[in-house]
Amino acid sequence: MKIKRFLDKDSRSAMARVRAEMGGDAVILSSKNVNGQVELVAAMDFDEKALDNHLDNSSDTAYGTGYEGVGLDENTGFEGDRLESHLMHSLGATSLSAGSAGRSQQSSKQGQASQEHLSQEHMPQEQSPTLTDLQRELGNLRGMLESELAQLSWKDMADRPSVKAALYNRLSKLGLSRAICGAISDKLPAKGDLESHWKKALVMLARRLKVMGDSILNDGGIVALVGSTGVGKTTTIAKLAARFVMRHGTKQVALITTDCYRIGGQEQLETFANYLGIPMIVATDGPELKAALDQLSSRKMVLIDTAGMSQRDVRLYEQFATLKSVGYDIDAYVVLSATAQQGSLNEVVQVFGKQQLAGAMITKVDESSSLGAVLDVVVKNDLKLGYVSTGQKVPEDIMPARVEYLIAKAVELMEMEAQLTESKHNNDRNNRSVAV
After folding, report:
1. Cα–Cα distance measured from residue 115 to residue 121, given in angstroms and rounded to the nearest whole number
2. Which of 139-143, 371-375, 395-399 has the lowest mean pLDDT?
3. What is the pLDDT of residue 265?
4. DSSP code of residue 65
């Protein structure tokens, strides 16, 4: 029997050397990492006694029963269970030890005489694989291993800690940007339990979120909601107004709208005002807005609804500039839809400038499949969160922003999305099976 040790930079290169020097009939006995390189031990023309002696004298390559872990060890990051499953399927047995493999080879070499001896002992011939059968099965196994190795970058897997990679991947599934995923995962140690790291990562994310509590409805003031079209500014205004009426009465709150572009916008807000029994004034420019604020100066809370436009429409910023030009201390909050894309949300904030904003409010949480994008924008721009809208009901579906709710909701949506994806894949597989 010829046994030889091969040391190379990676498994693919080592196996190529085995094939070149020992031929296609060589059998891989073991594999392990040695000082950043891969060591393969291969054999050919082996017999039972020599193979058993080699295994007994090589504690590093003793894998217990069967070829479980053939060609790989725990340092490679390879999926051992999947490899073992493939191996058992290829060999067509539930358990096949290295010793029994050697015995099968030796029996094969004895040829017809050995087979006749087995027949005389009433042993089924099918249970003793011939050399050709064993070589074919080992060739199949070798092909599968080479296919797996071709798809893996061993150097990258060795250089990148698997726990950090898994954590980064899970954070990205929340919908967070690369910058925040990297910033969080880089602050955690390279080794450790993934679930423990995940909890710490969520705590780190939570600490980056700033919330205001219920200060707007408690303290009042002049509050304007700004943002692009269709994000729910008018409905949020109605909810805040209704909540304020419930706490302070109808004499303490009023509404102003500067929306002269959207058909039905003024009528919608006027309907809410009439229902609550509070005044609503239309102000289409700076002088009208100043006059309205002068008229409502005795009110504890004045809520201003602005027209929604594309974040790339210059008139959106012009409205914002009008709010700042009337001489009143107006707190402008950008309204961010949880259903919007991250790029669009960033553009909206950039239009107004994060320094000019008092904070942000999140809407359409009930319609979103992910909260990561909107939370990412809030964190990046260091915006304080005022309120979160979770539906269309007035005034029920609004609450002060709470960090624990936002994080829990983000994780819940991520898990729901993963379940939907898995269900879709299962359905697709079932449909393909039926079609076949």
Report:
1. 10
2. 139-143
3. 63
4. S
Query: What is the CB neighbour count within 10 angstroms for residue 3?
Result: 18
Cα 256 from Cα 234, distance rounded (Å) = 11
Provide φ and ψ at 99, rounded to 5°.
-65, -45
Q: How far is CA 75 from CA 17, 60, 83, 159, in A?
A: 22, 13, 15, 11
> pLDDT tens, 160-215?
457 888 999 999 999 999 999 999 999 998 888 899 999 999 999 999 999 999 99
Task: Render pLDDT for 311-366 as a digit per residue (tens, 0 to 9).
Answer: 776 777 777 888 888 889 999 999 999 999 999 999 999 888 888 999 999 999 99
Contact partners, residue 183, CB within 8 Å, separation at least 6: none
Do β-strands 37-44 and 27-34 pair in parallel, antiparallel, or remain unpaired? antiparallel
Copy the structure tokens of residue 182.
């990297």
**The predicted structure's pLDDT at residue 22:** 80
Pairing mode of beta strands 37-44, 2-8: antiparallel
What SS3 class is residue 145? helix
The length of the chain, given as a count of residues: 436
Q: What is the pLDDT of residue 338?
A: 96
Comparing CA positions, the residue from 1, 154, 5 lying closest to residue 72 is 154
247 C-beta neighbours (distance < 10 Å), count = 13
Per-residue pLDDT band at 44 (split at 50, 70, 90): confident
SS3 of residue 44 by DSSP: strand
Segment 25-31 long-range contacts (CB within 8 Å, at least 24 positions apart)? 25/135, 25/138, 27/101, 27/138, 28/70, 28/71, 28/142, 28/145, 29/3, 29/54, 29/55, 29/61, 29/98, 30/58, 30/60, 30/61, 30/63, 30/70, 31/70, 31/71, 31/72, 31/73
How many CB atoms lie under 10 A from the CB of residue 74? 10
Question: Residue 4: CB partners within 8 Å, gap ≥ 6?
Answer: 21, 22, 41, 42, 43
132 near 101, Cβ under 8 Å?
Answer: no
Between CA 162 and CA 188 the distance in angstroms is: 13
Closest CA to 150 of 15, 57, 55: 15
Contacts of 157 (CB under 8 A, 6+ apart): 76, 77
Rounded Cα gap, residues 356 and 322, in angstroms: 13
73 in Cβ contact with 33 (< 8 Å):
yes
Give Cβ neighbours of residue 386 (< 8 Å, ≥ 6 apart).
Answer: 212, 216, 333, 359, 360, 361, 400, 401
Q: Please tell me which of 69-78, 88-97, 264-273, 285-294 the model is most confident about, judged by mean pLDDT.
A: 285-294
